[in-house]
């Protein structure tokens, strides 16, 4: 079986769909993780401490804002 011709030639095929799928999955992972972390922070502060609703909500919103600023796409990134 060795030596059979293959349709794949390194560097010759279009990979636009694979690149877009990769970027979609990475974006969903990044933003989904941020949302999960903010929700978890809110729930822990709400039910495991005496922070109350307002303190828990403010903490979760601060995490969301900071996470959005740090995780957003940079202008010169590819």
Task: Describe the protein in words.
The protein is mostly helical. The chain has a domain at 38-72. It has two helices and no strands. It is elongated.
At a glance:
By secondary structure, this protein is mainly α. It has helices at about 15-50, 50-70.
Helix % is: 55-70%
The residue-averaged pLDDT reads 89
Strand content: under 5%
Low-confidence stretches: none
By DSSP (H or I, 4+ residues per run), the number of helices equals: 2
Please compute the radius of gyration using only Cα atoms. 22 Å
Q: What is the CA-CA span between the terminal residues? A: 40 Å
Rough outline: elongated
**Most strands sheet:** none
SSE topology string: HH
Q: Structural class of the helices, strands and pairings?
A: mainly alpha
How many DSSP-defined strands? 0
List the defining traits of the structure above:
single chain; mainly alpha; 68% helix; elongated
List strands and helices in order, with pairings.
Layout lengths: L15 H33 L3 H20 L7
């Amino acid at each position: 079986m060795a030596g059979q011709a293959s349709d794949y030639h390194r560097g010759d095929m279009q990979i636009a769909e694979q690149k877009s799928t990769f970027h979609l999955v990475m974006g969903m992972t990044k933003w989904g993780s941020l949302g999960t972390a903010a929700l978890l922070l809110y729930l822990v502060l709400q039910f495991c401490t005496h922070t109350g609703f307002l303190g828990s909500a403010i903490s979760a919103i601060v995490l969301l804002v900071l996470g959005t600023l740090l995780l957003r796409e940079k202008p010169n990134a590819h």
